[in-house]
Amino acid sequence: MRMRNLAVTVVCLVAAVASLAFGQNSEARVRRIILNTRHLGAHGMGYNTQSLWQLSKKLTPADIPVLLSIASGEPGISVGAQFALASQCGSSVAAVRDAVVRDGAAQRKFSYVDAEDTLLLISEFEGCSSEVRRQASDARAEVQLLHEEEHTRIEQESNQKADDDARIQRNGLKLLDPEQAKTLTREERLEIYRRSLAAMGLKEDGPMTSEQKKLVDRMYRSMVLGEVKTPPN
């Protein structure tokens, strides 16, 4: 009985070690598979339709998280990872879409362009069903729309920042004229003050030397309270 229990324990330990080793080597295994499906083309070694068929047989949907990780950050193999994702057809459509749609910018695993390219590969791969290819096309259209919306938002934010900078700069010049300074609101004065601090690499609640604290205090009394008639340089 003891021997039997010992044998079971040994088998379990071996299985656990093998599972751990597989987990540690799964990314390396996926990398090898991707690199081994390159073919010589007009521009050297690369990926093509034959690669898609080979990858579809050597990989499974369980490899998708690893593929997303590889595709998002390694230029040397990222294109191959996109082909590998495309080879998984329906399982990759939602994964690729969610990688850009659900995740915020900070957590985004995939760029919009890479997602669009991968979904295009799926939509054109004959190894995927017609329904999956249609879903990939729909997902790509959604990603493209989100990409355009984000581009528009960033452009608007950039324009708004430029407008704010110009306005605050104009208001800052008004402080040099006592009469024009009277037209500034407290909020406008605070903007000038905070922008001046930022230009000096300082923050209101950040660390400062005693000399910096004296200077900042004088700036506040001058720019915001108007107590010091000659603003500090």
Q: What Rg, in angstroms, do the CA atoms define? A: 30 Å
Computed structural class: mainly alpha
**Average residue pLDDT:** 83
* Strands in their spatial order, largest beta sheet: 1-2
Task: Characterise the protein shown here.
By secondary structure, the protein is mostly helical. The protein has two domains: 24-154, no CATH class; 175-223, no CATH class. Helix content is 73%, strand content 3%. It has ten helices and two strands. The protein has helices at residues 2-35, 49-58, 64-73, 75-87, 90-101, 112-124, 130-174, 178-181, 186-199, 210-223, and strands spanning 39-41, 44-46. It has a two-stranded antiparallel sheet with strand order 1-2.
Structure in a nutshell:
This protein is mainly alpha-helical. It has 10 helices and 2 strands. It has helices spanning 2-35, 49-58, 64-73, 75-87, 90-101, 112-124, 130-174, 178-181, 186-199, 210-223; strands at residues 39-41, 44-46.
Question: What is the topological layout?
Answer:
Layout: H1 2-35, E1 39-41, E2 44-46, H2 49-58, H3 64-73, H4 75-87, H5 90-101, H6 112-124, H7 130-174, H8 178-181, H9 186-199, H10 210-223
Helix pairs in contact: 2-4, 3-4, 4-6, 5-6, 5-7, 6-7, 7-9, 9-10
